[in-house]
Amino acid sequence: MTDHPRAEPALIAPTTRLHHAWLAARDDWGPGVHEDGFGLHPSDEVDSPPGFAAWVARLTDVPGSVCRWIVEGDRVLGGIALRLGPADHVRVFGHIGYGIRPSARGRGLATWALGRMLVEAGSLGLTEVLLVCEDHNTASVKTIERNGGTFDGVQSTDLGPLRRYLITLR
């Protein structure tokens, strides 16, 4: 058996070309709408090509957000989204949300993707970014701290306690 070199990870705009790859990533997570960074809503129908195309079109045309998929070759490994508004949504969920499919975790992909999205946030004029994660999500805490996150407290929400971090952009 020959090992094939792994493709370099990349951040790309959502695309209908990767419909089957995205479905494989979703199936890796299991049922539910919990893939942070994908902007998936319970009402989104993504199994059919037309439904998937409508969802991708919505993602690429959302004012106040930048959605990217984390890919290697033709594999979708996760998603990351930069939210610029509305302010009340950002206050609760932060400027950036991300998620890595379970089978691709532990490789530093979230840290890598967050670093690149922070560059994009700076290029859009942000000087400080709020990131929020579940209180018990130690992997996300490490990802945020590796990118310069400073702990800013815990907030109580309907989703449970959420840790807040601020990252100052240079």
TrEMBL record:
Top-rank taxon, per record: Bacteria
**PROSITE patterns per the UniProt record, alphabetical:** GNAT
Output one GO MF annotation.
acyltransferase activity, transferring groups other than amino-acyl groups
Question: Is Transferase one of the keywords?
Answer: yes
Q: The N-acetyltransferase domain covers which part of the protein?
A: 27-167
Any Pfam family hit: Acetyltransf_3
For this UniProt record, the keywords arranged alphabetically read as follows:
Transferase
Q: Which InterPro entries match?
A: Acyl_CoA_acyltransferase, GNAT_dom
Q: What is the protein's name according to its record?
A: Putative acetyltransferase
Kindly list the organism's lineage.
Bacteria, Bacillati, Actinomycetota, Actinomycetes, Pseudonocardiales
